[in-house]
Design brief:
Layout: E1 2-11, H1 15-28, E2 32-38, E3 45-55, E4 68-71, H2 74-80, E5 90-93, E6 103-106, H3 108-114, H4 121-132, H5 140-147, H6 151-165, E7 183-186, H7 187-197, E8 200-205, H8 212-220, H9 222-225, E9 228-231, H10 235-248, E10 251-256, H11 258-274, E11 278-284, H12 301-305, E12 315-318, H13 322-339, E13 342-348, H14 349-353, E14 355-358, H15 424-442, E15 449-452, E16 458-463, H16 467-480, E17 485-490, E18 492-494, H17 499-506, E19 510-515, H18 521-530, E20 536-539, H19 548-557
Parallel strand pairs: 1-4, 4-5, 5-6, 8-9, 8-10, 10-11, 11-13, 12-13, 16-17, 16-19, 19-20
Antiparallel strand pairs: 1-3, 2-3, 2-14, 7-14, 12-18, 15-17
């Protein structure tokens, strides 16, 4: 059993703060949480809402139907009432009137005014919610002190919540649980923490929703983690700064969304030609151009895989959930250093912004290897930056760290020492050297995660943030249907790992691809790389995340 509450209103009405308070209280009560945010690209006005789903078992996705609404304006009731269960409720101000027994029109604004802060109306509504479910205020005061920097504001909101307790009687049974010691985190925070754990010391970016919160989080840790965070004047400057920092010897990263990545692609090629390690976070939103700045989509896959002119080694890792985002970010830095190439972390707005409870990250599992050759080149030994080797990986030293050794790099084709060349023979040798890295990289690829039992009829394919909705849908389908379902959800996506895919595809009667784009980009990539063809696509590209319920309904209807 789980619950799904919606907080809705206009931008500027404090929904993020209310959701943060609710999440923290629920987490301390021991609930598992999965929260999504739907917001417009404006500072004030428009209809925004946040859905907080919570229960006793781990939650991997949001769901669409609601059993409770806190409405800060009339529009919220009008838009979302149809999704509300018959046993559900709406908490709103008495000025909002609907002929619906589920609507509790209460003096929220009037109560907030009585304590001297009308903006605390939402906290009064939270108090009503807590009282309905028989929850006391023992955890609330501490949470408010963490939420608000000013003590007087925290006290006013606590008063508003306690006043809200007085407006109703308890109606539902409170579930006694204990805090499980989990953390509450979103995808972009997990990426940022992964970067810090990996020893990233330079992050540069130009603000672009939904990637900006990576930069914002890292900026709050500049002194504590001794990291330089630079808000560049544009996307091109941001990636070139990161390349320069990496050349100088520090682990560096940049982040953006699709439109910003379009500006970065020449420099991605520069990283490939100069063989300079670089980690790039590309957090997708719907395009083309500005598109829907605050919405979600998975339409940049083929673009990212084929970005930049020419052929050079690169890796693309699609992030599946916050836990995966943390560990894969650490791995991305190690792979970038080992293969001296760009590694692209592919996320999206859904993963960037949803918050969920997860086990604390294990920093003991974090290993850092810089793969440097500084010590090997002391003395008279000749150093050639692009020395031709069997595996294509040339020795890398840090400029200025080895006396008398010059680290010469260039964006033109070059010889082993880094000098520009137009020799056809050297060109072939250097290009082959770079591309040989891919053969070793393929031995380190992680296979997609397999969900379900070994006996199945239908195999679902997905990637990245669809991990949660697909996992939940498979569980629901297998518990309610004689048809057997399984899924492969890709994390490493370029180069494409093929072993498990080929093995499972042979046993499937149907292969169904699920993506948040209009053209089925994963299915096309798989067909191109393996010849495996999907029977059907389930595609969504309206900017809103697909839920496990939607996947379940479409698959049940198509059986």
């Amino acid at each position: 059993m789980d619950y799904n509450r919606l907080i809705g209103g206009a931008a500027g009405q404090g929904m993020d703060t209310l959701a943060a308070i609710l999440e923290r209280v629920l987490k301390r009560k021991g609930f598992e949480i999965f929260t999504i945010r739907d917001y417009m690209s404006r500072v004030r006005g428009g209809h925004n809402f946040i859905q907080v789903r919570f229960g006793q078992k781990a939650l991997n996705s949001h769901r669409d139907n609601l059993d409770g609404i806190i409405a800060l304006n009339e529009e919220t009731v009008r838009i979302h009432r149809e999704r509300l269960s018959e046993e559900g409720f709406v908490i709103c101000d008495k000025e909002i009137q609907f002929e619906d027994k589920r609507v509790l029109s209460l003096p929220l604004k009037e109560t907030a005014k009585s304590i001297g802060n009308v903006k605390a109306m939402g906290s009064t509504a939270l108090g009503v919610l807590f009282k309905l479910f028989g929850m006391d205020d023992s955890l609330v005061e501490d949470v408010l002190n963490l939420t608000f920097e000013r003590e007087d504001i925290a006290k006013q909101n606590f008063m508003a919540i306690t006043k809200g307790f007085e407006l109703v009687e308890s109606k539902y049974e409170s579930i006694p649980l204990k805090d499980q010691g989990k953390i509450l985190i979103n995808g972009n925070q997990a990426i940022a923490l992964g970067a810090l754990a990996a020893g990233c010391k330079f992050y540069s970016a130009y603000p672009m929703t939904p990637s900006t919160s990576i930069m914002n989080y890292l900026a709050t840790k500049m002194d504590e983690a001794e990291i330089v965070v630079e808000q560049a004047e544009d996307e091109i400057a941001a990636i070139n700064m990161a390349i320069g920092a990496s050349y100088a010897g520090v682990r560096a990263m940049t982040g953006t969304s699709g439109g910003g990545f379009a500006l970065k692609v020449e420099a991605v090629g520069l990283s490939g030609m100069q063989e300079i390690p670089l980690v790039i976070a590309e957090i997708q939103r719907p395009g083309p151009t500005t598109g829907l700045p605050t919405r979600t989509e998975q339409a940049d896959l083929r673009f990212v895989v084929s970005c930049a002119p020419g052929e050079f080694p690169k890796m693309v890792i699609a992030l599946r959930n916050p836990e995966d985002a943390f560990y894969q970010t650490v791995r991305a830095f190690n792979l970038a250093d080992k293969y001296q190439m760009p590694v692209i972390l592919l996320g999206d707005q859904y993963l960037a912004d949803y918050t969920t409870t997860t086990a604390p990250f294990d920093f003991g599992k974090v290993e850092i290897n810089r793969y440097l050759s500084n010590e090997a080149y002391t003395g008279d030994k000749e150093y050639r930056r692009y020395e031709i080797t069997e595996n294509g990986i040339s020795p890398r030293i840090i400029p200025g760290k080895v006396p008398g050794k010059v680290v010469l790099v260039d964006s033109d084709e070059h010889d082993e020492s880094g000098h520009i060349t137009e020799s056809a023979e050297v060109r072939v040798k250097m290009n082959d050297k770079r591309m040989r890295k891919l053969e070793q990289l393929k031995t380190e690829l992680l296979e997609p995660e397999f969900i379900g039992g070994e006996e199945f009829d239908t195999l679902l394919l997905a990637w990245g943030s669809l991990y949660g909705p697909v996992k939940e849908a498979v569980d629901q389908l297998n518990s309610s249907s004689t048809k057997r379902f399984a899924a492969l959800v890709f994390g490493d996506i370029w180069p494409l790992p093929q072993k498990l895919l080929t093995e499972k595809a042979k046993n499937a009667k149907k292969i169904i691809n699920i993506e948040q784009n209009a053209t089925g980009q994963l299915a096309a990539l798989i067909m191109e790389e393996t010849g495996i063809k999907c029977s059907r696509n389930i595609l969504k590209y309206d900017g809103r995340p697909i839920s496990a319920q939607e996947i379940y309904t479409k698959l049940k209807g198509g059986m």
